[in-house]
């Protein structure tokens, strides 16, 4: 079976999910720390499920070089929240469904057909 070189990863996204007001507070605290500690792009809050995501969340975009410090920090500081981390390889459907890793509960990706097979968009 042919392999895919990791050089295809252009960047990463982390989706920080929350289910209720208490979890939203934890998500806000994580967001504040991420903005202080790492070179990231913080996406807007989605108070309702959006796109293929089953729960409210916000997205954090970060560079390949940041993965080795940001993801371990999330592992240790997620405070019980569910987090999806996926690469951006210009294959959004595969990135969310096949190439992803979960911290905490693994949630179903809903309506995966909404995710394009290929994308020319940068992360």
3D architecture notes:
This protein has about 120 residues and is α+β, with helices and mostly antiparallel strands. Helices cover about 30% and strands about 20% of the residues. The protein is built from three helices and five strands. It has helices spanning about 20-35, 65-75, 90-95; strands at about 10-15, 40, 55-60, 85-90, 100-105. The chain has a five-stranded antiparallel β-sheet. The longest helix has 17 residues, at about 20-35. The two termini are about 25 Å apart. The mean pLDDT is about 90.
Give a short overview.
This protein is an alpha+beta fold and 123 residues long.
List the helices and strands and how they pair.
Elements lengths: L10 E7 L3 H17 L2 E3 L14 E6 L4 H11 L5 E6 L3 H6 L3 E3 L20
Antiparallel strand pairs: 1-3, 1-4, 2-3, 4-5
Main sheet strand line-up: 2-3-1-4-5
Low-confidence stretches: none
Order of helices and strands: EHEEHEHE
**Annotation, overall tally of beta strands:** 5
Beta-strand percent range: 15-25%
**Average pLDDT, all residues:** 91
Helicity level: 25-40%
Discrete helix count: 3
- The secondary-structure class comes to alpha+beta
Describe the largest sheet. 5 strands, antiparallel
Span between termini: 27 Å
The Cα radius of gyration reads: 14 Å
Overall geometry comes to globular
Features:
123 residues, 3 helices
């Amino acid at each position: 079976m042919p392999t895919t070189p990791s050089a295809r990863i252009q960047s990463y996204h982390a989706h920080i999910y929350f289910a209720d007001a208490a979890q939203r507070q934890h998500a806000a605290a994580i967001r504040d720390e991420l903005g202080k500690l790492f070179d990231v792009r913080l996406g807007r809050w989605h108070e309702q499920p959006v796109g293929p995501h089953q729960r409210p969340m916000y997205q954090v975009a970060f560079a390949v070089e940041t993965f080795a410090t940001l993801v371990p920090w999330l592992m240790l500081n997620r405070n019980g929240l569910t987090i999806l981390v996926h690469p951006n390889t210009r294959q959004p459907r595969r990135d969310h469904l096949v190439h992803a890793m979960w911290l905490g509960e693994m949630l179903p990706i809903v309506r995966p057909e909404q995710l394009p097979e290929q994308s020319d968009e940068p992360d």
